Structure formats: structure tokens, C-alpha cells
Amino acid sequence: MQEYTSKEVFNQRFMEMNGDPKVKNREIAYDNWLADYEAEIEKCETVIVDLGCGLGNNTYFLIEKGKEVLACDISEVAIETLQKDVPQAKTKLFDMTQKFPIEDNYTDIVIADLCLHYFTKEVTKKMIAEIKRILKPNGLLLFRVNSIHDDNYMLKQSTLDKDFFWEEKQQKSKRVFHEESIKEFFADWKIEKIQEEKMLRYFKEKIVWNCAVRKV
Ligand SMILES: C[S@@+](CC[C@H](N)C(=O)[O-])C[C@H]1O[C@@H](n2cnc3c(N)ncnc32)[C@H](O)[C@@H]1O
Q: How far is it, in rounded angstroms, from Cα 185 to Cα 122?
């Protein structure tokens, strides 16, 4: 068994979204969560890295603000769709569970929206260390992850650690976060915001943590 949802599962999902005119996510739509960080984004002079960019909701927001963006994902379908829809963005196809093909101190801002919550504790820690490596000193990571209070449809499935779940039939993994676990993962960062909130980008309401942490 692998430790996280594979790229084939994501590719399949994005192909379905591409092929279904009724799927509103297919139209690039962001839910404006990054507006909270507008001042920080405005003054950023480096390329901004959008990790797990998917079809480009956040990339599109940043490009609209006149920013340079490196949009990264494991899914070829996501990257190819984004290249067509947001040709101004640079893209990189890679698996975040491995060393990122990005140099040290590359950027002042990393965005990781709804993409850090698929992994075991060990893999999550490894990814956070990689994010730290590519951030400049004092750089900012803005991210959203599943809250423990989200609709935990997978919680009855096999539990690998206290907050990590694997759904065998769909081959999907999910981690849920508590305020304490976020503080633990980012113990050696400066935590600027941990806010639990509802998001409405998908058809169904979702409860997430909206967080800003700074490399120290
Ligand atoms: C729920 S989507 C979020 C997409 C986008 N950030 C957004 O908010 O619209 C999760 C994204 O993470 C990507 N992803 C999942 N596992 C990954 C991995 N190991 N490496 C890189 N990207 C990954 C998926 O392909 C997918 O695009």
C-alpha cells in the first residue's frame, strides 16, 4: 500500500472535471482566501511558488495581481490544463514527497492550498522541511489544510496514525489537523495565523485551517 493518493487518482479526477461542463471548479474560480495576505503578496518581488496547484485557482489569483508564479503539481492533467488556462505561469511537474527540484532560498512566498493533507506524519514533516529549504529567510508559507471538524467521510476506514486515514476502495488518503498538530508541525517556525474557517469553493462546505507561518 502506498502512503498517499497517487497521481493517477488526481489525473482521473482532473480529467473528469475537464470533461464535465457542469463542474463549476473547471472554470477557474478562487475563493479569495489569499486576499487576507494581499499586502504581503503585493510587496513580494520573487517568483511565488504555488504547490499542489491543481487547475490553478491560486495561480490565477496571483497572476491577476501581476505576480510571477511557479505552479507545481504531481498531476500532468492539472499542469497541462493550467498551462492552457494561465499561460503566464511557469510550471513544474514533481512529487512533493521527494526532494523538490527547486533551489534553496528561491522564494519569499510559498502557497500550499489543500495539498499538504494527504500524507503520513513522516512525509508531512519531510515536505515542510523542503518548503523551508526553498523559502528565503523570513519567507512566508500560506496554506490551508483539512480541519478535524471537516466532514470526515473517511474516518471509519483504516487508521494508520491518529489523524491519518486510508480509503482502500478509492485509494485515497487524508490527514486531518488540530490546532495543536499544526503547532507541532511548525514548532520551529513563527506562527502568524491559525484560523479555522468554512470554505465554499467546492459544492459542499468544507472546514479548513487557514494558516500563515514564517521561516525563522
Ligand atoms: C485538492 S487539490 C488542491 C488544488 C489547488 N491547490 C487548489 O486549491 O485549487 C490537491 C492538489 O495537490 C496535488 N498533489 C497531491 N499529492 C501531491 C504530491 N505528492 N506532489 C505534488 N502535488 C500533489 C494534487 O494533484 C492536486 O492538484
A: 10
Half-sphere exposure of 44 (CA within 13 A, CB side): 29
Percent of the chain with pLDDT over 90: 77
C-alpha 204 to ligand 1 mean position (Å): 18
Ligand 1 close to Cβ of residue 114 (< 6 A)? yes
Sheet-wide strand order for 135-146: 90-93, 69-73, 48-51, 107-113, 135-146, 206-215, 189-199
pLDDT, tens only, 138-173 = 999 999 999 999 877 677 666 778 899 888 888 889
Q: Whole-model pTM above 0.85?
A: yes
Does residue 97's CB lie within 6 angstroms of at least one atom of ligand 1?
yes
Cα(177)–Cα(146) distance, integer angstroms: 6
As a whole number of angstroms, the distance between CA 106 and CA 40 comes to: 17
**pLDDT tens-digit profile of 63-103?**
999 999 999 999 999 999 999 999 999 999 999 999 999 99
Distance (Å, rounded) from C-alpha 6 to C-alpha 178?
25
Task: Quote helix, strand, coil % in the chain, to nearest 5.
Answer: 30, 30, 40
Q: Which domains does the chain have, with CATH numbers?
A: 7-215 (3.40.50.150)
Q: Is 29 helix (H, G, I), strand (E, B) or coil?
A: coil
